[in-house]
Amino acid sequence: MKTSTLILILIANALVTVLIVLGFMVIPVTGFPSINLSNTGESDEEVISAIETVSPAVVSIIITKDLEKIYDRENNRFNEDPFGRFYFQQRSMSPTAFDPRERVSQGVPPRDGEVTSEPQTKTIEIGGGTGIIISSDGYILTNKHVIEDKTADYTVFLVDGTELSARVIAVSDDTDLALIKVEATDLVAADLGNSDELLVGQTVMAIGNSLNRYESTVTRGVISAIGREISAQSSNGDVVELDNVIQTDAAINPGNSGGPLLNLDGEVVGINTAIDSEGESIGFAIPINSAIEFIETEME
């Protein structure tokens, strides 16, 4: 090996050694580079905060009906599906899926020896949905297909368990939206966002009375698409054409109808309305801006 080559190798090794020594001298002073993981996406804290913000404004809607109107005692069968077909999804029922004797809500029976000529109240729960409080004096936004049965009664349950009777104020055939009212004051109203600002891939959450049994169920997903056009079948068999709806993969179940689709700021950006039962995690919501137009018209 030539002397010049050997000298260059020694110099290179010396430089590497110096750089390594200097590196270990600098690291204790400056510290290792920090990686900020909090900016890689939404945090759980953001999701939790959004849910806590809107939860008091989300209500469960229970639908009941006089048993005599839907049950044929002579032939021991129902004249209509007691479960309804809420959420634009036909629901099959096996002959043994429902026993009216077990789930009938009867009035208080007369005391021993008491004579009464008034018939006992016999009602049955036929379905349910979700609603969003939009004013402190009791206006609630939901879906038309949740409250379209004019012979049924509607009861609202607040998050604290308060039970209130509701009456229908207005419905929209074009958007499948409805406005109902309970007699109450000082209710917590939800903040309504701007659905025109939504982006595909944006994180959203859904809250609702899933399966009419699991109230205030929260699911999380993203905006899968915007501006969809869908055909949905209502509970009375009518086909409703809905334009410009939001598609999401946040799990939406029967009973979520009328519940909110939220952004990370806790604002309502959509009204959960339908699912495609042939797929998985394919749900649809009406943009809140369409709902705002309906609200402003009906509450003038």
From TrEMBL:
Signal sequence extent: none
Q: Its Gene Ontology biological processes?
A: proteolysis
Q: Which UniProt keywords apply?
A: Hydrolase, Membrane, Protease, Transmembrane, Transmembrane helix
| Molecular-function GO term, any one | serine-type endopeptidase activity
Q: Which residues cross the membrane?
A: 7-27
> Which InterPro entries does the UniProt record give?
Chloro_Bact_Ser_Proteases, Peptidase_S1_PA, Peptidase_S1_PA_chymotrypsin, Peptidase_S1C
Which stretches of sequence are listed as region Disordered? 98-118
- Family to which the UniProt record says this protein belongs: Belongs to the peptidase S1C family.
| Protein name per the record | Serine protease
Species assigned in the record: Candidatus Uhrbacteria bacterium CG_4_9_14_3_um_filter_50_9
